[in-house]
Write a structure and sequence with these properties.
5 strands, 32% strand
Length: 80
Amino acid sequence: MPTWNAHSLADKTSDPLDLGKGDKVKASVDLPGVPAGTAGEVALANGFIWKRFWVRFDNGVTLGSLDSHQLEPVAARKKR
């Protein structure tokens, strides 16, 4: 349960991804320098309500501020 309510303009159509550093993902849409379907690894995960990630993609491109609109998990979450 969130500790505060999301902003009224926040997108409520998608659930935030529960990813952490080292989790495997793939691009679900075309991104700058990264075609859809390219695999990558989460380098940084941050945010409370709006979860966003820095991802190092297999083609050598690193992008930040990616969320559930641009990413989808490839494997189950790593045990921490």
